Amino acid sequence: MTSPTAFGVRAFFDEVTGTVSYVLHDGASREAAVIDPVWDFDAKSGRTSTVSAQRIVDYLQAQQLDLRWVLETHAHADHLSAAQWLRTQVPAGTVRTAAPVVIGQQITAVQKVFGGIYAMDDSIAPQGRDFDRLLADGDVLQLGAIGIRALSVPGHTPADLAYAVDDGSGSGVSAIFVGDTLFMPDVGTARCDFPGGDAHQLYRSIRKLLAHASHTALYVCHDYPPAGRAPAWRSTVAEQRAHNVHVHDGIDEAAFVAMRQARDATLAMPQLMLPSVQVNIRAGRLPDADAQGRRFLKLPVNAL
Ligand SMILES: [Fe+2]
Predict the structure, then answer these.
(1) Separation of 79 CA from ligand 1 center, angstroms?
(2) CATH number for the domain including 126?
(3) pLDDT tens-digit series, residues 131-154
(4) What does the pLDDT look like over 260-282, one tens digit per residue?
(5) Cα 203 to ligand 1 centroid, rounded to whole Å
(6) What is the domain count for the chain?
(7) Measured in angstroms, how far is the CA atom of residue 77 from the centroid of ligand 1?
(8) Taking a C-beta distance cutoff of 8 angstroms, is the pair 224, 270 a contact?
């Protein structure tokens, strides 16, 4: 029997986009999964950088962790995914193939919508096979003794997954990486106004998360801390049910949807929405290079 502390979680907060990436590892086997890695992108210059992702690689190496999975909670609209770069960063001398990149199976619906928005032709049309593994609700990935169960939590996008961690000790799920569903209690919840988003679905997805045991740790995908509060990413089911400003116990679906839709109507598109989605629906790949090795992102006009 493994102890309840048999796994480790390390968060990496990206100040630029407010994204939290995680390394989850199994203490016994040293196998690790990286969740939602960020590929830095400067929109003004069009330059990418792996500074943020390198911090994760440095941590993996310092802790002598073996990267087995790269998990995406969804196709992000606020940052480019470093999945393709990160998956190949294996310790020197390792002959194992690169870690698989994983996402929810409904990504095909997101790919269809955005493939149209970007007018991606047949040669680059995004397909499920851009990812190495597509998960359905309830599918389990193994990380040493840890089971990582996919929970379908649509609403922000149709393909959102949360990843629930069961350390095999018999005490059930003790931590969930919730993706873009809940934020910290004082910030609330994720927006639902992107193509395919649905506030009704998000409410039901959140209630599904909050039906777990009260002590379950919930790790958010973003934090936008109010003035005076340091960035934070870990809460519990009990804290969210008591204090989440959008969806604490007692707020019903109709009230939530009315609040969410009114709020979404006031939000600007994320700074990196158009650069990031065309990369992220292809599992973090840039468009193919032309004959001179140049790569170009598309900027659809008046499409959103
Ligand atoms: Fe998102």
Answers:
(1) 9
(2) 3.60.15.10
(3) 999 999 999 999 999 999 999 999
(4) 999 999 999 999 999 999 999 99
(5) 16
(6) 1
(7) 5
(8) no
